[in-house]
Amino acid sequence: MASSPVSPAARAGLLVFQPLKRRRCAECHAGPLPLVALEAGEPRCLDCADLGHLVYLPRGDTALTRRAREGSGLWAVVVRFHRRRARYERQGVLVEEAALARAEERCLADAEARARRRSRDAARRAVEDVRFTEAFAAEIRRLFPGCPPDRARAIAAHASVRGSGRVGRSAAGRALSEGAVTAAVTAAVRHTATPYDRLLMSGVPRGEARRRIAAAVETTLRGWRAPRGRPASGA
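That's the DUF2293 domain-containing protein sequence above. Prediction below.
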């Protein structure tokens, strides 16, 4: 005998099981069943339980599951028994196909909106980064008027890379403090205008390597502190 229709309200909170053993429907004898609904303790296939029109949505996407369930007049939770943990665990839900399609459209719209927002945020950060790099370069030129403009821009760009952890992104660097700007310029001179990196690669300890190139660094900085075209004092 076919089972009588059951209202959606009565179906709220339905459970459907992924059986661990081979089960057959007590009504139509189909089997083995991948999903089983229990009625009066007897296994039923989804068709005989009036759930055959529902589609399975595995767990994993919380927003999609919530929206599909909310939009479905009839739905069921799919569970499976975990022997080691001795408990039933949720595997997904059965929902109406139209509800799932609507939920997917809403989630896709949200994803597109998030992508647009990320794009806007990235563009805004890019503009902010350009402005900050320009301000950093201007401060380098103010403190070191003899520094070639292209070198000042290169030093500023390197020191102010977002997320780099370099001095330009420190609190002092963002405030364009003299100490932070000077530290960025000094580091640039050390790495690009002296044999400092080669000394490190050859095994010279960092402190000793810095001591060996300190005079060369100071000579370059002293020259850059003087206005362009005017010799540095003591030169």
